[in-house]
Amino acid sequence: MADPAAPAAAARPTKIIAGADPFGAPLKDALVTHLREALHIEVEDLGTGPYYSIAADVGRRISSSGGPETRGLVACGTGCGVSMFANKFPGAFAATCLSVADAVNARSINNSNILAVSAVYTPPEPAVEILRAWLDTPFKSPCPANGDRPWSDDIQEFLDRALVETPKIGVPASEPDESASCAICCLVKRRELNPIDMIPGGSMKILRETPTSAIVRFKAGSVEPAHHHTFGHDLVVLEGKKSVWNLTKKERYDLVVGDYLFTPAGDVHRVQYHEETEFFIKWDGHWDMFFDEDLETAKKAIAEESSSSSLP
């Protein structure tokens, strides 16, 4: 006779959104094949990219999917990098699982909806077992973390409460009703800019938070080495002239006064300032900047392009 207190069997998702970096691609491909051919689950394979951007793509899609029918699968060398960046979106709960026990715990306790796997530590056959355990384990089911026993009533209440409260973490507070507030509260009258320590020649003044906007100025001849952010950003050139190389898309943009450019999250880009240049920039999220080359490498690359373009 079935135990009436036992949780119902998990309903497998009907769709998986998958992605990996080059280190995790072979393992991801093996798991995608298993999902499609053995389990007959629809898979949208986003392919391969840098661990931070491909994981962000999966996390963003799961965040906006709106239901348990769709889950995510990400892979890299360790499984940690993709988990970190998939988790940057509200309602995306990625868990790095190196064992079946990890997978069962992540589903039972955390209601994980993105599985992160390690190509370095997990061969394909054990990874399939991890995947199947993660797919088949219901939320609040008995798990190794509790000695495979059913959760007590108070713990089940806590887990239910967490299911409601955790998606709210990371969601920006609602914008205030600006029509009901004094316009002068958003007025910035002084334009003194503070130096940007990490890039010589740059200075910035934050104008507003949520969304964050700023005025940025660079001296003529300044160079921003190739870098990326975990957020997309919009900018409008107010004065001067600059060139932006989007190395991810292999495109160059020469910007002058009045020009607008949007750079997506994760896109690696390098910048050169031909004149003293000032621009307005707006981004979502907390400021971060991850360098993909040093300043001397950036200057050398720009000089080589300039030299080759001047050849007859």
Could you give a short description of this structure?
By secondary structure, this protein is of the alpha+beta class. The protein has helices at 25-37, 51-65, 80-86, 100-110, 124-136, 153-165, 295-309, and strands at residues 15-20, 42-48, 70-76, 94-96, 114-118, 194-195, 202-208, 212-218, 223-228, 233-239, 241-246, 251-256, 260-263, 269-273, 277-283, 290-291.
Oligomer: single chain
How many extended strands?
16
For the record, what is the CATH homologous superfamily label of the largest domain? Answer: Sugar-phosphate isomerase, RpiB/LacA/LacB
Shape: elongated
The termini sit apart by 86 Å
Biggest sheet descriptor:
6 strands, antiparallel
Quickly name the level 1 CATH class of the largest domain.
Alpha Beta
Which structural class do the helices and strands define? alpha+beta
Poorly predicted sequence stretches spanning 5 or more consecutive residues: 1-9, 174-184
Helices and strands, in N-to-C order?
EHEHEHEHEHHEEEEEEEEEEEH
* Second rung of CATH, namely the architecture of the largest domain: 3-Layer(aba) Sandwich
% residues in beta strands: 25-35%
Q: Using the CA coordinates, give the radius of gyration.
A: 24 Å
CATH fold-type name of the largest domain: Ribose 5-phosphate Isomerase B, Chain: A
Strand order of the largest sheet: 6-7-8-15-10-13
Helix content, binned percent = 25-40%
Task: State the helix count.
Answer: 7
